[in-house]
Backbone:
Protein backbone atom coordinates (compact mmCIF):
# COMPACT_ATOMS: atom_id res chain seq x y z
CA UNK A 1 0.00 0.00 0.00
CA UNK A 2 1.04 3.54 -0.65
CA UNK A 3 1.74 5.16 2.70
CA UNK A 4 1.39 8.74 1.52
CA UNK A 5 -1.87 10.53 2.20
CA UNK A 6 -3.58 11.62 -1.00
CA UNK A 7 -4.38 15.29 -1.51
CA UNK A 8 -7.27 14.32 -3.74
CA UNK A 9 -9.30 11.15 -3.78
CA UNK A 10 -12.01 10.46 -6.34
CA UNK A 11 -14.20 7.52 -5.35
CA UNK A 12 -16.46 5.81 -7.87
CA UNK A 13 -17.43 9.14 -9.43
CA UNK A 14 -20.32 9.20 -11.87
CA UNK A 15 -21.51 12.17 -13.86
CA UNK A 16 -24.50 11.43 -16.04
CA UNK A 17 -26.21 14.07 -18.18
CA UNK A 18 -29.85 13.60 -19.00
CA UNK A 19 -30.17 14.60 -22.64
CA UNK A 20 -33.81 13.68 -23.16
CA UNK A 21 -36.46 11.61 -21.44
CA UNK A 22 -35.01 8.48 -22.97
CA UNK A 23 -31.36 9.29 -23.29
CA UNK A 24 -28.59 9.88 -20.75
CA UNK A 25 -24.90 10.50 -21.53
CA UNK A 26 -22.72 8.71 -19.02
CA UNK A 27 -19.83 11.17 -19.36
CA UNK A 28 -18.09 9.76 -16.29
CA UNK A 29 -19.16 6.29 -15.25
CA UNK A 30 -17.55 5.15 -12.03
CA UNK A 31 -13.95 6.30 -11.87
CA UNK A 32 -11.62 6.20 -8.87
CA UNK A 33 -8.13 7.57 -8.42
CA UNK A 34 -5.89 9.34 -5.92
CA UNK A 35 -3.46 12.18 -6.42
CA UNK A 36 -0.66 12.54 -3.89
CA UNK A 37 0.77 15.81 -2.71
CA UNK A 38 3.35 17.33 -5.04
CA UNK A 39 2.76 14.88 -7.88
CA UNK A 40 1.29 15.25 -11.34
CA UNK A 41 -1.48 12.89 -12.37
CA UNK A 42 -2.10 12.85 -16.11
CA UNK A 43 -5.58 12.07 -17.38
CA UNK A 44 -5.54 11.11 -21.05
CA UNK A 45 -8.00 9.84 -23.62
CA UNK A 46 -9.60 10.83 -26.90
CA UNK A 47 -12.19 13.55 -27.32
CA UNK A 48 -15.41 12.82 -25.45
CA UNK A 49 -13.90 10.36 -22.99
CA UNK A 50 -14.97 12.45 -19.99
CA UNK A 51 -11.75 14.15 -18.95
CA UNK A 52 -13.11 17.70 -18.70
CA UNK A 53 -16.26 16.46 -16.99
CA UNK A 54 -14.04 14.78 -14.39
CA UNK A 55 -12.13 18.03 -13.80
CA UNK A 56 -15.31 20.06 -13.59
CA UNK A 57 -16.92 17.65 -11.17
CA UNK A 58 -13.85 17.80 -8.92
CA UNK A 59 -13.86 21.59 -8.86
CA UNK A 60 -17.62 21.58 -8.17
CA UNK A 61 -18.86 23.04 -11.43
CA UNK A 62 -21.11 19.97 -11.51
CA UNK A 63 -22.79 18.12 -8.71
CA UNK A 64 -21.84 14.44 -9.16
CA UNK A 65 -24.56 11.93 -9.99
CA UNK A 66 -22.91 9.65 -7.44
CA UNK A 67 -19.57 8.99 -5.83
CA UNK A 68 -17.34 11.13 -3.67
CA UNK A 69 -14.53 13.62 -3.99
CA UNK A 70 -12.25 13.99 -0.99
CA UNK A 71 -9.80 16.86 -0.90
CA UNK A 72 -7.23 17.36 1.81
CA UNK A 73 -9.06 14.86 4.00
CA UNK A 74 -12.48 16.45 3.61
CA UNK A 75 -15.44 15.35 1.52
CA UNK A 76 -16.10 18.19 -0.93
CA UNK A 77 -18.77 16.67 -3.17
CA UNK A 78 -22.29 17.60 -2.15
CA UNK A 79 -23.23 20.41 0.15
CA UNK A 80 -20.51 22.52 1.74
CA UNK A 81 -20.41 25.21 4.40
CA UNK A 82 -19.67 28.74 3.21
CA UNK A 83 -16.29 28.58 4.92
CA UNK A 84 -15.30 25.31 3.20
CA UNK A 85 -16.53 26.68 -0.12
CA UNK A 86 -14.36 29.74 0.33
CA UNK A 87 -11.27 27.72 1.23
CA UNK A 88 -11.77 25.56 -1.84
CA UNK A 89 -11.98 28.58 -4.11
CA UNK A 90 -8.41 29.40 -3.17
CA UNK A 91 -6.98 25.90 -2.70
CA UNK A 92 -8.16 24.48 -6.02
CA UNK A 93 -7.59 26.34 -9.28
CA UNK A 94 -8.20 25.51 -12.91
CA UNK A 95 -6.25 26.46 -16.02
CA UNK A 96 -8.12 26.18 -19.30
CA UNK A 97 -7.27 25.37 -22.88
CA UNK A 98 -8.09 28.68 -24.48
CA UNK A 99 -6.95 31.53 -22.26
CA UNK A 100 -8.45 34.11 -24.61
CA UNK A 101 -11.89 32.68 -23.95
CA UNK A 102 -11.56 32.94 -20.19
CA UNK A 103 -9.52 36.12 -19.79
CA UNK A 104 -11.83 39.12 -19.77
CA UNK A 105 -10.78 41.12 -22.86
CA UNK A 106 -11.74 44.45 -21.30
CA UNK A 107 -9.62 43.95 -18.21
CA UNK A 108 -5.95 44.65 -17.80
CA UNK A 109 -3.69 41.77 -16.84
CA UNK A 110 -3.24 43.29 -13.38
CA UNK A 111 -6.97 43.18 -12.67
CA UNK A 112 -7.35 39.70 -14.16
CA UNK A 113 -4.70 38.32 -11.83
CA UNK A 114 -5.90 40.38 -8.86
CA UNK A 115 -9.53 39.28 -9.12
CA UNK A 116 -9.28 36.09 -7.06
CA UNK A 117 -7.25 37.83 -4.37
CA UNK A 118 -9.78 40.66 -4.23
CA UNK A 119 -12.83 38.44 -4.00
CA UNK A 120 -11.27 36.45 -1.20
CA UNK A 121 -9.62 39.43 0.58
CA UNK A 122 -6.19 37.82 0.47
CA UNK A 123 -4.05 40.92 0.96
CA UNK A 124 -3.73 43.67 3.55
CA UNK A 125 -3.12 46.73 1.40
CA UNK A 126 -2.43 47.91 -2.13
CA UNK A 127 1.34 47.50 -1.68
CA UNK A 128 0.97 43.87 -0.78
CA UNK A 129 -1.35 43.27 -3.74
CA UNK A 130 1.11 44.98 -6.12
CA UNK A 131 3.91 42.91 -4.72
CA UNK A 132 2.03 39.63 -5.10
CA UNK A 133 1.13 40.42 -8.69
CA UNK A 134 4.60 41.55 -9.71
CA UNK A 135 6.11 38.49 -8.11
CA UNK A 136 3.81 36.04 -9.86
CA UNK A 137 4.23 37.81 -13.23
CA UNK A 138 7.97 37.44 -12.87
CA UNK A 139 7.55 33.80 -11.82
CA UNK A 140 5.74 32.97 -15.07
CA UNK A 141 8.27 34.83 -17.19
CA UNK A 142 6.40 38.09 -17.71
CA UNK A 143 7.29 41.51 -16.34
CA UNK A 144 5.40 44.11 -14.36
CA UNK A 145 5.13 46.24 -17.50
CA UNK A 146 2.83 43.53 -18.84
CA UNK A 147 0.37 44.19 -16.01
CA UNK A 148 -1.07 47.28 -17.69
CA UNK A 149 -1.79 45.57 -21.00
CA UNK A 150 -4.89 43.76 -22.25
CA UNK A 151 -5.08 40.03 -23.13
CA UNK A 152 -5.25 40.61 -26.91
CA UNK A 153 -1.82 42.25 -26.77
CA UNK A 154 -0.21 38.92 -25.96
CA UNK A 155 0.77 35.79 -27.90
CA UNK A 156 -0.93 32.47 -27.19
CA UNK A 157 1.94 31.26 -25.04
CA UNK A 158 2.02 34.50 -23.05
CA UNK A 159 -1.71 34.35 -22.50
CA UNK A 160 -1.35 30.88 -21.11
CA UNK A 161 1.28 32.28 -18.73
CA UNK A 162 -1.30 34.85 -17.60
CA UNK A 163 -3.75 32.00 -16.99
CA UNK A 164 -1.13 30.18 -14.95
CA UNK A 165 -0.31 33.36 -13.01
CA UNK A 166 -3.97 33.93 -12.24
CA UNK A 167 -4.27 30.40 -10.85
CA UNK A 168 -0.99 30.38 -8.95
CA UNK A 169 -1.35 33.77 -7.31
CA UNK A 170 -3.95 32.10 -5.08
CA UNK A 171 -1.25 29.72 -3.83
CA UNK A 172 -3.45 26.67 -4.52
CA UNK A 173 -2.76 23.15 -3.34
CA UNK A 174 -4.22 21.60 -6.49
CA UNK A 175 -4.17 22.94 -10.03
CA UNK A 176 -6.39 21.30 -12.63
CA UNK A 177 -4.91 22.00 -16.06
CA UNK A 178 -7.50 21.09 -18.69
CA UNK A 179 -5.77 20.90 -22.07
CA UNK A 180 -3.77 23.89 -20.87
CA UNK A 181 -1.16 23.61 -23.59
CA UNK A 182 -3.11 21.93 -26.41
CA UNK A 183 -3.73 25.13 -28.33
CA UNK A 184 -0.06 26.14 -28.34
CA UNK A 185 2.74 25.44 -30.84
CA UNK A 186 4.84 22.43 -29.89
CA UNK A 187 7.89 24.53 -28.97
CA UNK A 188 5.78 26.81 -26.77
CA UNK A 189 4.09 23.76 -25.21
CA UNK A 190 7.46 22.61 -23.92
CA UNK A 191 8.17 26.04 -22.44
CA UNK A 192 4.86 26.15 -20.59
CA UNK A 193 5.22 22.59 -19.33
CA UNK A 194 8.73 23.38 -18.10
CA UNK A 195 7.38 26.44 -16.34
CA UNK A 196 4.72 24.33 -14.65
CA UNK A 197 7.35 21.79 -13.60
CA UNK A 198 9.65 24.46 -12.15
CA UNK A 199 6.79 25.99 -10.19
CA UNK A 200 5.87 22.58 -8.87
CA UNK A 201 9.41 21.97 -7.67
CA UNK A 202 9.51 25.33 -5.98
CA UNK A 203 6.05 25.43 -4.40
CA UNK A 204 5.09 21.76 -4.16
CA UNK A 205 1.88 22.31 -6.12
CA UNK A 206 -0.09 19.20 -7.12
CA UNK A 207 -1.38 18.92 -10.69
CA UNK A 208 -4.19 17.12 -12.41
CA UNK A 209 -2.99 17.41 -15.99
CA UNK A 210 -5.66 16.69 -18.59
CA UNK A 211 -4.63 16.16 -22.21
CA UNK A 212 -5.16 14.03 -25.25
CA UNK A 213 -1.57 14.43 -26.42
CA UNK A 214 0.42 11.71 -24.71
CA UNK A 215 3.89 13.03 -25.48
CA UNK A 216 3.61 16.05 -23.16
CA UNK A 217 1.76 13.99 -20.55
CA UNK A 218 4.67 11.59 -20.49
CA UNK A 219 7.04 14.43 -19.81
CA UNK A 220 5.15 16.00 -16.90
CA UNK A 221 3.24 13.14 -15.19
CA UNK A 222 4.30 10.84 -12.38
CA UNK A 223 1.25 8.66 -12.92
CA UNK A 224 -1.28 8.42 -15.72
CA UNK A 225 -4.92 7.40 -15.94
CA UNK A 226 -6.13 6.38 -19.40
CA UNK A 227 -9.76 7.27 -19.87
CA UNK A 228 -12.23 6.06 -22.48
CA UNK A 229 -16.00 6.59 -22.62
CA UNK A 230 -16.32 7.51 -18.96
CA UNK A 231 -14.08 4.75 -17.58
CA UNK A 232 -10.44 4.64 -16.53
CA UNK A 233 -9.32 1.60 -18.48
CA UNK A 234 -5.73 1.59 -17.26
CA UNK A 235 -3.73 3.43 -14.63
CA UNK A 236 -0.08 3.28 -13.68
CA UNK A 237 3.17 5.13 -13.29
CA UNK A 238 4.26 6.91 -16.46
CA UNK A 239 6.83 4.14 -17.02
CA UNK A 240 4.28 1.38 -16.57
CA UNK A 241 1.89 2.97 -19.06
CA UNK A 242 4.58 3.62 -21.66
CA UNK A 243 6.74 0.50 -21.18
CA UNK A 244 4.11 -2.10 -20.36
CA UNK A 245 0.67 -1.08 -21.61
CA UNK A 246 -1.88 -3.89 -21.24
CA UNK A 247 -5.22 -2.48 -22.37
CA UNK A 248 -5.72 -2.38 -26.17
CA UNK A 249 -7.05 1.17 -25.87
CA UNK A 250 -3.83 2.30 -24.17
CA UNK A 251 -1.84 0.51 -26.84
CA UNK A 252 -3.76 2.25 -29.60
CA UNK A 253 -3.21 5.66 -27.98
CA UNK A 254 0.51 4.98 -27.67
CA UNK A 255 0.74 3.77 -31.25
CA UNK A 256 -0.70 7.09 -32.41
CA UNK A 257 2.23 9.13 -31.09
CA UNK A 258 4.50 10.20 -33.95
CA UNK A 259 8.15 9.25 -33.47
CA UNK A 260 10.71 12.08 -33.71
CA UNK A 261 13.09 9.86 -35.67
CA UNK A 262 11.81 9.75 -39.30
CA UNK A 263 13.25 6.27 -39.90
CA UNK A 264 11.37 4.84 -36.93
CA UNK A 265 8.32 6.99 -37.72
CA UNK A 266 8.07 5.46 -41.19
CA UNK A 267 7.67 2.01 -39.62
CA UNK A 268 5.15 3.10 -37.01
CA UNK A 269 1.84 1.24 -37.24
CA UNK A 270 -1.13 2.98 -35.67
CA UNK A 271 -3.25 0.33 -33.95
CA UNK A 272 -6.99 0.51 -34.46
CA UNK A 273 -9.17 0.04 -31.42
CA UNK A 274 -12.82 -0.82 -31.79
CA UNK A 275 -14.27 -1.85 -28.46
CA UNK A 276 -17.58 -3.06 -29.86
CA UNK A 277 -15.93 -5.16 -32.53
CA UNK A 278 -13.74 -6.74 -29.88
CA UNK A 279 -16.78 -7.30 -27.70
CA UNK A 280 -15.47 -5.21 -24.80
CA UNK A 281 -18.00 -3.97 -22.27
CA UNK A 282 -16.37 -1.73 -19.69
CA UNK A 283 -19.19 -2.24 -17.20
CA UNK A 284 -18.37 -5.97 -17.09
CA UNK A 285 -14.69 -5.39 -16.28
CA UNK A 286 -13.08 -5.32 -12.85
CA UNK A 287 -9.75 -3.79 -11.91
CA UNK A 288 -6.86 -6.20 -12.23
CA UNK A 289 -3.77 -5.24 -10.34
CA UNK A 290 -0.41 -5.87 -12.04
CA UNK A 291 1.71 -4.02 -9.50
CA UNK A 292 0.92 -1.81 -6.53
CA UNK A 293 0.49 1.07 -8.96
CA UNK A 294 -0.59 -0.54 -12.24
CA UNK A 295 -4.26 -1.50 -12.77
CA UNK A 296 -6.28 -2.55 -15.82
CA UNK A 297 -10.03 -2.69 -16.30
CA UNK A 298 -10.89 -6.07 -17.82
CA UNK A 299 -12.92 -9.23 -17.43
CA UNK A 300 -10.86 -12.25 -16.31
CA UNK A 301 -10.80 -13.57 -19.88
CA UNK A 302 -9.73 -10.28 -21.36
CA UNK A 303 -7.03 -9.86 -18.76
CA UNK A 304 -5.55 -13.30 -19.44
CA UNK A 305 -5.62 -12.62 -23.16
CA UNK A 306 -4.12 -9.14 -23.01
CA UNK A 307 -1.56 -10.03 -20.38
CA UNK A 308 -0.09 -12.89 -22.37
CA UNK A 309 -0.19 -11.06 -25.71
N1 LIG B 1 -22.90 19.72 -19.79
C1 LIG B 1 -23.06 18.64 -20.55
N2 LIG B 1 -24.31 18.22 -20.91
C2 LIG B 1 -24.47 17.13 -21.67
N3 LIG B 1 -23.47 16.36 -22.12
C3 LIG B 1 -22.22 16.71 -21.79
C4 LIG B 1 -21.95 17.87 -21.00
N4 LIG B 1 -20.61 17.97 -20.84
C5 LIG B 1 -20.06 16.92 -21.49
N5 LIG B 1 -21.03 16.17 -22.08
C6 LIG B 1 -20.79 14.93 -22.84
O1 LIG B 1 -20.03 14.07 -22.03
C7 LIG B 1 -19.04 13.39 -22.79
C8 LIG B 1 -17.66 13.69 -22.22
O2 LIG B 1 -17.34 15.05 -22.47
P1 LIG B 1 -16.00 15.74 -21.94
O3 LIG B 1 -16.06 17.16 -22.36
O4 LIG B 1 -15.84 15.45 -20.50
O5 LIG B 1 -14.89 14.96 -22.75
P2 LIG B 1 -13.33 15.27 -22.89
O6 LIG B 1 -12.63 13.98 -22.61
O7 LIG B 1 -12.96 16.44 -22.09
O8 LIG B 1 -13.18 15.58 -24.45
P3 LIG B 1 -12.19 16.63 -25.20
O9 LIG B 1 -10.87 15.93 -25.34
O10 LIG B 1 -12.85 16.86 -26.51
O11 LIG B 1 -12.10 17.88 -24.37
C9 LIG B 1 -19.24 13.82 -24.22
O12 LIG B 1 -20.02 12.87 -24.87
C10 LIG B 1 -19.96 15.14 -24.10
O13 LIG B 1 -20.77 15.37 -25.23
MG1 LIG C 1 -12.17 18.31 -22.55
Residues:
Amino acid sequence: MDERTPLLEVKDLRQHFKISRKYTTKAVDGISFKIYEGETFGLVGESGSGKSTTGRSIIRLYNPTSGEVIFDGKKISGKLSAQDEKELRTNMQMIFQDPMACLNPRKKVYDIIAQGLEINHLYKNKEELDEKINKILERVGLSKEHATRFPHQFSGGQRQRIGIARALVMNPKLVIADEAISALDVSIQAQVVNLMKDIQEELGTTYLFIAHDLSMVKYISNRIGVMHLGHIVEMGTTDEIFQNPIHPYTKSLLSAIPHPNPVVEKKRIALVYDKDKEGIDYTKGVYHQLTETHTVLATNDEFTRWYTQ
